[in-house]
Amino acid sequence: STNYHHRGEIKDFRIHNRALDADEIRGLYNGESTPYKYANAPSALEVNINGTFDSNYTGWSASAESGSAASISNSSYKLLVTNNSGGTNGHAVYAATTVIGNEYVFSAEIEYTNANASLSADNSTGGGEGLGNSAIVSSGTKTVSFNFVATATTTYLFLRTHTSSAGAGAKFDNAKLEQAGEVAAYTPKSINDKWY
Hints:
About 5% of the residues lie in helices and about 40% in strands. The protein has one helix at about 20-30, and strands at about 45, 60-65, 70-75, 80, 85-95, 105-110, 115-120, 130-135, 140-150, 155-160, 170-180.
C-alpha cells in the first residue's frame, strides 16, 4: 500500500534463522555482545551404523528384494554383498534409530565388482526406496549419498545390488548416517558484529 510511509532512518536490519528470546533482544538493544548459541543441535551428528567394515559388520544383516537372501562378508576391509541363486537385488540392511522429522544424509563408498549397486532407505525391511535412494554405481569406485527426512523412529538402510544373477555383487565401505541441517544458530554479535 502507498498510504503508509516511514519517516526516519533504519539503523539496523537483521534476519535470524530462529526466534530470539527476550534476554537476547534486550542485549542486542543495549549493544551487548551475545555469543553464539546452539539451537536444536543433535546430541551426535553421526549415527553409529558400524559402517567401516574393518573387521566386522555387526548390526548389518543379509536380505533380498525377493527370493533367497544375499550373502554378506568382509572382503579387503569392505562389506561384500553377493546375490544368491533364486534371489533378486540382494542387499545388506541396518535398522538405524532416527528422530521423526529430522533430515539425514546416508552415504557410502561403492565398489562395482560385477553388479550395479546403490543405497536406499525405507520404513520397512523389504529393500525399498520409500525415503530415497542414491545414484547407481555401474563401474569403478564411487562415493554416493542422498538426503531423507525420517518418518519413523527406525529407518532401514540398504546397501543394494541390482541383479538377479547368482554370485554377482558389490563392495561397500565407509557407510555413514549423519544428521543434516542446522547445528548452531548464531546471534548477530557473535561474529565481529558484521551483520548486514
